[in-house]
């Protein structure tokens, strides 16, 4: 068995010095707490969220409230819009009609001197018809600057803000929050509210957003909408770096929906073209002192597939002099000692682990298993299927693997 670090209870938060650089990684998705790595500093949050009840919040609860006003923008969220952090993609939904596609933005509140124009689309899922989904790239931004933005028309317009990251620099400090397996329960609410209080500047999301796939027929779309309104309290202000989990696949032959990721891909755009990816499901961004690679556990990744070819090239683009932190996000963990989802990440491990070691990935974050766990720096790249030796060994070039724990979804904690 691989060697895993201590698993203790609470929430986890880390500050690690790497050379002169300071990056903070805040873990919000777990009811567990620890401080990883051999870094020089760690801070422990005293916050522990309740384990129960893990039931979805009723649709008429105010956390899902539709904003007032005819056709008011709802489900507002932002993500990085380019490779290096000088752009955002702003997305929102209007329910009654298309409405304006414009984002008005500027450097002071109420003074929106710039305008960007986006696109709008809608789709059906079984007999559910989505609202009008707007996506607008706002680019050419200055680094390290607070922007204010306004969307919607007339009395129904709504105002938000975001802050761009510092320039790409090995010494740029930055604070990431990390969430996975969030859902829309009272525990999910607790997770997201705690995350906002800690001042995380960007959220790294490791998959399984809404758990709407636990509903049927029309209610699948309805629960994607409620989750969008739920996440807005953070995601309209802090960019969320998205990755897809198994709950985003939504392969439902019983209602004629057999194209994977349809709801997710219509609603959560990513800047995949900026990293020369051919799919929104795998891509990379650079932010402050970190190079972040997003992989898709549920898309082809074996040798010669698009994801495999893309990752081979992307790893060559990593410049540790500019971004000393190399972070990989995926949904299914490659190392997992729980019964829950045991060995599900093994196929990706067999394909990518040697690259992670060769390129000295710092940390691989995963979700899926609803329990926190972290590894020592170990690898199993010497494993040879015809001659045994299938045992992970200490490897200084290997990443630390962290399963970030449960964000609060209705499935509850993995107990074994
Ligand atoms: Fe999952």
UniProtKB/TrEMBL annotation:
Q: Where is the Purple acid phosphatase N-terminal domain?
A: 73-164
Q: What is its EC number?
A: 3.1.3.2
A Pfam family that this protein carries is Metallophos
The reactions it catalyses are:
a phosphate monoester + H2O = an alcohol + phosphate
Which keywords does this chain's UniProt record carry?
A: Glycoprotein, Hydrolase, Signal, Zinc
Group of enzyme by EC? hydrolase
Q: Please verify whether the record's keywords include Signal.
A: yes
Q: Where is the Calcineurin-like phosphoesterase domain?
A: 175-372
In terms of SUPFAM superfamilies, this protein maps to: Metallo-dependent phosphatases, Purple acid phosphatase, N-terminal domain
Q: Domain of life here?
A: Eukaryota
InterPro entries, per the entry? Calcineurin-like_PHP, Metallo-depent_PP-like, MPP_PAP, PAPs-like, PAPs_N, Purple_acid_Pase-like_N
| Residues of the signal peptide | 1-41
Family per record: Belongs to the metallophosphoesterase superfamily. Purple acid phosphatase family.
Q: What is this protein called?
A: Purple acid phosphatase
Give the originating organism: Rehmannia glutinosa
